[in-house]
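Notes from hallway chat w/ T.B., transcribed later so I don't forget. T.B. wanted the structure written out for a chain they're using in a teaching module, and asked if we could keep both sequence and structure tokens in one place. Agreed to drop them here.
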Amino acid sequence: MSTKRTDRIKSQPNSRPLNWRNTKKQIPRVFKLVMDVPLYSGLVEEVLDTIENDTLRVFRPDDQQALHQETNVAGEILVNKRATLPVSIREWLPVGCQLITRYGSPEPHTLAYYQHNGPETIFPVTGEEPPGPAAFCGRICLLDAVFLDEETENANDALRFVVAHELVHVFDAMRFVVPAVMDWPSFWGNVLNQGTQCNLLHSCLEHKSLFLDSYATENELAMVKEIWPSRADKWFVACNAIYRRNKTPKKRG
């Protein structure tokens, strides 16, 4: 899996007396995706290897209007309207997700989820300048409920769809994390306007998440199909049939 490394940033000279209130230390960061899904890593890797649309359009770090709400003639919010900078998903994936793991702790109505610390590291609601993207961590957790006691192609397709669904959550986050990594000072100053736009970024990600998490609907299928156009339908049908038949919770977080 490819890696991404932030630019080295040297300690800036400080003319004031040194103490804990006015000193900062920064280190380089290497981003790498680690797979920790015993017995099922092959299936997860297959979903990654079969990405058909590798181009993801992210927001530009110098776009001061990136988070301004735009709508079409029908009044629908165009959340990605200003995401115009093309990047490779395969190249930048480790920036948005560093771990795909199996997590044994059961959670009600959940098969899997994507979790990240963006609100603490990149866009805090407090508006105070955060540590920045070098501290960003993201992971996909596949819970025990998603792994079935049957070895059929249908069951495998169901799992593939769950993994693909969570990866789409990663891609949505990457639209902001990638430009933050590319040029953090510009992203903080322009896109986030020194922290005053953090709430708008939160709202944007929440809107995308709600749209994707309308489970077993055309909305969910359409978002997965953008990346896997020739496979999404088959995986989608298997996912809904398998987990409904086994009365497994449908939520995929």
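Follow-up for T.B.: The chain has a mean pLDDT of 88. Might be a good example for the class.
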